[in-house]
């Protein structure tokens, strides 16, 4: 629509309806693509016959990693304490 003209209400309505139609169509297509992509990823990442096993393994790995991190922090702190004691 050109600016500077007083557009009739009917013309505005038509234009808005056309816009919303195309928007709806685009979002529908986008949603379908997203769903397809999600399904592909799900198939890629699931271990056949192992329901929930992977997430359990992931949780265990994360837990171990956190424990190691805590341990290394303790060691660093201890080393710092020893170093300061040796200086004095």
TrEMBL record:
Region Disordered, residue ranges: 1-55
Biased composition (Basic and acidic residues): 25-43
Protein name per Swiss-Prot or TrEMBL: Uncharacterized protein
């Amino acid at each position: 629509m050109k600016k500077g003209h007083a557009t009739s209400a009917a013309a505005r309505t038509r234009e808005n309806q056309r816009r919303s139609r195309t928007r709806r169509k685009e979002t529908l297509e986008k949603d379908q693509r997203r769903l397809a992509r999600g399904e592909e990823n799900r198939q890629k990442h699931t271990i056949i016959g192992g329901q929930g096993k992977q997430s359990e393994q992931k949780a265990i790995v994360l837990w171990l990693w956190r424990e190691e991190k805590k341990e290394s922090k303790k060691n660093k702190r201890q080393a710092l304490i020893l170093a300061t004691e040796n200086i004095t």
